[in-house]
Amino acid sequence: MAFILAIDQGTTSSRAILFDQNLKIATVAQEEFPQHFPASGWVEHDCNDLWTTTVSTCRTAMEKIGATAADIAAIGITNQRETTVVWDRTTGKAIHNAIVWQDRRTSEICQRLKADGHEATANERTGLLLDPYFSGTKVAWILDNVEGARQRAEAGELAFGTVDSWLIWNLTGGMVHATDATNAARTLLYDIRKGRWSQTMCDMLRVPMDMLPEVRDCAADFGHTQADLLGAEIPILGVAGDQQAATIGQACFKAGMMKSTYGTGCFALLNTGETPVVSQNRLLTTIAYQLDGKPTYALEGSIFVAGAVVQWLRDGLKIIDAAGETHALAQQADVAQNVVLVPAFTGLGAPYWNADCRGAIFGLSRNSGPAEFARAALESVGYQTRDLLEAMQADWGTAGDTALRVDGGMSASDWAMQFLADILDAQVDRPDVLETTAMGAAWLAGQRAGLYPDMEGFAKTWALERSFAPAMAEDLRTRKYAAWKRAVAAAQSF
Ligand SMILES: Nc1ncnc2c1ncn2[C@@H]1O[C@H](COP(=O)(O)OP(=O)(O)O)[C@@H](O)[C@H]1O
Ligand SMILES: O=P(O)(O)OC[C@H](O)CO
């Protein structure tokens, strides 16, 4: 039996998944690692944790089913995007903790650049906005705050990479400093139209170009693992950022197809084909995947809090013990109460991009309790998705005409998915395999290794587990969504 090893290095855990030659999951290993919050709005990871948990989960997954390196045809890597690592090319040591995508420390730099009128140039080159979310300002922050770093970077001694690059560098023993086009597209340094690093953006953000990795296709040769890591050399043949990998795993290969992933946050990607669509509604233009040198573009809506609102009910309010309890609670909620929760715990992402907004709850009465809170929390994820889809519809026209394919931990909630269908007035399809992110990375590597079918054949393997059809009366849908819009406006003016 031949396997593909998918590495999924996420925000809260590292996972290794072995897929067999029929694209079925053979085993999964997962390890969480600590999150570091050195100041308000700052989020860091220890770069060593990212690396050691990756290797140990790979080893555990292999041990679980007695697979050796000889059984593994190739490795595919998918990763939390934007998170920034800078390391010394000689020692291979990171010079600072990884600055995580959620980190807001460069908010002021972004404000300054915007005030100086740079946003249009940034958007035109990269498809992104001047927001601390992306890597570019994080790299500059490290260079300005670690003693001697800027000088060393200018002397070519330091390397920058998103998490995929950091893992590739370590897996190959420092032989390969590369990334793929989807990860490059999240740095604020990459020209998504020209398909190369942008001198203009590097100058704007003061990032020396010599630090940047080489950009390759998603299915390409990224070197091979050092023999002593997993028992023998294994080729690395696939790389994609996690949301793009999920788009691939959901087989959204045709323009107009869309997926939405509900993990900590929610990321909706609409395949727009060979042309990058410029959003008039504050969505991001990004690369969905790049194969045979040809990029396919996507419009992306990024919401920072989705499943995290359920974690808040559990860990902050302590009104549930496990995420799954929200289903029963939401069912018990008093329908006459219209409690609306705006979960802007770390500001609002698309389409508002309001870093300073904070969470708010409206419509409480003396009878409001855990059930109404749980319902409002699940509903908030549906409302935020509708905001994204309305923006996509305005930019693209047909968004929402096809079913929305969902995945991620929170898509396990039948209640949340039914509400989503209701508030969108659109069909929501949940696939059999919810590990779409890892599946996407596995397919990239597996088809390059000659083990898996081509795009068309792979798309045929997508199987539906459950479809949710809208069942809410139109006037109720209209009233509820209008209440959400009022709540978001009020939260922003607080
Ligand atoms: N049955 C459920 N109902 C509601 N939310 C859930 C359920 N199961 C998991 N979640 C939420 O899904 C999230 C985990 O999803 P996952 O895809 O593993 O996230 P990530 O990759 O961002 O760590 C958690 O925030 C959790 O609260
Ligand atoms: O690690 P996840 O699944 O929360 O995904 C993080 C995204 O890639 C951030 O853009």
CATH class type of the largest domain: Alpha Beta
- CATH architecture field of the largest domain: 2-Layer Sandwich
Strand content: 15-25%
Estimated helix fraction? 25-40%
- Please describe the biggest sheet, giving its number of strands, its sense, and whether it closes into a barrel: 7 strands, mixed
Question: What is the number of beta strands?
Answer: 22
Uncertain ranges: none
* Structural class assignment: alpha/beta
The overall number of domains is 2
What distance separates the N and C termini? Answer: 59 Å
The whole-angstrom Rg is 22 Å
According to CATH, the homologous superfamily of the largest domain is: ATPase, nucleotide binding domain
Helix count from the secondary structure assignment: 17
Describe this protein's structure:
By secondary structure, the chain is an alpha/beta fold. It has 2 domains: 3-242, ATPase, nucleotide binding domain (Nucleotidyltransferase, domain 5), CATH 3.30.420; 251-431 and 463-494, ATPase, nucleotide binding domain (Nucleotidyltransferase, domain 5), CATH 3.30.420.40. Helix content is 36%, strand content 22%. The protein has helices at 47-64, 107-115, 119-126, 135-145, 149-154, 163-171, 181-184, 199-205, 227-230, 242-249, 307-316, 325-332, 370-396, 414-424, 436-448, 455-460, 474-493, and strands at 3-9, 13-19, 25-32, 44-45, 72-79, 85-88, 98-99, 158-161, 178-180, 190-191, 196-197, 214-216, 236-241, 258-262, 266-273, 284-291, 294-303, 340-342, 360-362, 404-407, 428-431, 464-468. The strands form 7 sheets. Strands 16-17-15-14-20-21-22 form a 7-stranded mixed β-sheet. A 5-stranded mixed β-sheet has the order 3-2-1-5-13, sandwiched between helices. Strand 20 (404-407), helix 14 and strand 21 form a beta-alpha-beta unit. Helix 1 (47-64) packs across helix 6 (163-171), helix 12 (325-332) crosses helix 13 (370-396) and helix 13 (370-396) crosses helix 14. It is globular and about 65 Å long. 53% of the residues are buried. Bound molecules: adenosine-5'-diphosphate and SN-glycerol-3-phosphate (G3P). Residues 10-11, 80-82, 101, 241-243, 263-265 line the site of SN-glycerol-3-phosphate (G3P). SN-glycerol-3-phosphate (G3P) binds next to helix 10.
